[in-house]
Q: What sequence folds into this?
């Protein structure tokens, strides 16, 4: 949301603050994701449906594969993929380690009677993917008119597999939310029906006015911009557990000061 009260000096100060906060929170999130990484290995969910996976029966594997199959088919049979293929077992996944990368999106600004596209980064919102299949690489692939169908298939396969794995653990999103890193599955126009797993901080960032963005890019010489921390979120930051416990105490006639 644009903030017309920002000037370039305030923005520069907020950018330094934002990067310091992003470094801290990304470090925390990296530790958390590393801890839950074994849960995100597809073999534990799909079992024998994964090529080279365990031959032992995995409870719920049939249901998980069916869910992934439906999602995969819905994605590849529509724009911008148009593969007109169906997912069959066994699934061959090249990467099962996970990584997080800051969310980046395109924003068009008007300048001197024309317009240009700015690559905007949301530094406190990350995309969760299997390693080697970042959103930036997917965007590059879709921009390539000479891309191979097999390469497109590989990306859709890894994205839909991870989405299915995460959804197989209902407690996982609740766990990360309790750690102030809520998980969401989002869709963006340029990626069609592909579900993009995003992990956000409880502290949001904002995009200032286009005028300030233009001024910043002219100073840097790059058509790139980073959102800055929303100071109101810092001011309003609360402990959800404390709020719940205080409410319970009040329901029992105790007023805590």
A:
């Amino acid at each position: 949301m644009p903030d017309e009260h920002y000037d370039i000096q305030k923005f520069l100060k907020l950018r330094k603050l934002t990067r310091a906060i992003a470094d801290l929170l990304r470090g925390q999130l990296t530790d958390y994701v590393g801890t839950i990484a074994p849960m995100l290995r597809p073999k534990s969910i799909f079992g024998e449906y994964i090529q080279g996976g365990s031959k032992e029966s995995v409870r719920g594997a049939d249901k998980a594969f069916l869910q992934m199959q439906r999602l995969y088919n819905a994605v590849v049979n529509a724009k911008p993929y148009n593969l007109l293929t169906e997912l069959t077992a066994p699934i061959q996944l090249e990467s099962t380690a996970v990584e997080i990368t800051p969310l980046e999106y395109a924003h068009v600004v008007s300048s001197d009677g024309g317009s240009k596209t700015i690559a905007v980064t949301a530094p406190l919102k990350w995309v969760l993917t299997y390693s080697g299949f970042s959103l930036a690489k997917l965007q590059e692939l879709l921009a390539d008119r000479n891309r191979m169908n097999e390469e497109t298939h590989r990306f859709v396969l890894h994205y839909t597999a991870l989405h299915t794995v995460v959804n197989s653990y209902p407690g996982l999103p609740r766990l990360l939310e309790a750690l102030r890193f809520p998980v969401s599955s989002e869709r963006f126009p340029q990626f069609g029906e592909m579900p993009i797993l995003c992990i956000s901080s409880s502290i949001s960032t904002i995009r200032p006015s286009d005028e300030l963005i233009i001024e910043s890019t002219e100073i840097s010489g790059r058509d790139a911009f980073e959102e800055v921390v929303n100071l109101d979120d810092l001011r309003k930051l609360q402990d959800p557990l404390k709020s719940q416990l205080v409410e319970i105490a009040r329901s029992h006639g105790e007023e805590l000061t």
In short: The first helix runs from residue 8 to 36. The chain has one domain: 8-251.
